[in-house]
Sequence to fold (93 residues):
Amino acid sequence: MFESDWLDIFSRTPWWTVPLIWVPASAAMFGWSIWSGAPVFGAIVAALVGWLVWTFTEYSLHRTVFHWTPKASWGARFHFLVHGVHHQWVRDR
Fold:
């Protein structure tokens, strides 16, 4: 993506970084809710509802916010820098 190998390091995210961060964070929040007195079934339902809401919210935002068609040239450049690179270099390994 970059001509500089040093800068290119910062543009790559291995697949395992997402679960590495969010599985422990989710487990900690789930454990904290149980420790705080929430019923186990209620905590499980809340976790599942939260997961579903986030999935559809993220999809909707991705489709509407990141896939708008800019009219000005500066808008097209801004859009590419914010999100276009995600599609230009999908597998930049």
